[in-house]
């Protein structure tokens, strides 16, 4: 009985992992401040609330500060998403979860990167954990 439960649990975890890896790419190219997209490009303020439709995205609330790490560059020019982290007064000292949000939901208030790097996205850019 216990081995059946363990088998079901492992199959469930495997299936969840496979589903997470199969998320659609939102764009083929992105703009970053460095080769690993770990330097903050800019700081922005959320203009409105955004509820994440899936695990690739983050929730943002109107007025929150968002640190932008990369900007996706879609081929057709529509559906522009940026990647960033949201911090709030309550969690100032903690690293925020990084995810995508519509660029139209924020207003850039300060740019940190003078030069940027344009590179291809990979499947890992859209991996959900």
From TrEMBL:
Residues in the signal sequence: 1-20
Gene Ontology terms describing biological process:
cartilage condensation
Can you tell which superkingdom this protein's organism belongs to? Eukaryota
**Membrane-crossing residues?**
none
Which keywords annotate this record?
Answer: SH3 domain, Signal
Instruction: Name the InterPro entries on file.
Output: OTOR, SH3-like_dom_sf, SH3_domain
Pfam (any one): SH3_2
The SH3 domain sits at 39-111
PANTHER family in the cross-refs: OTORAPLIN (PTHR47146:SF1)
Q: What is this protein called?
A: Otoraplin
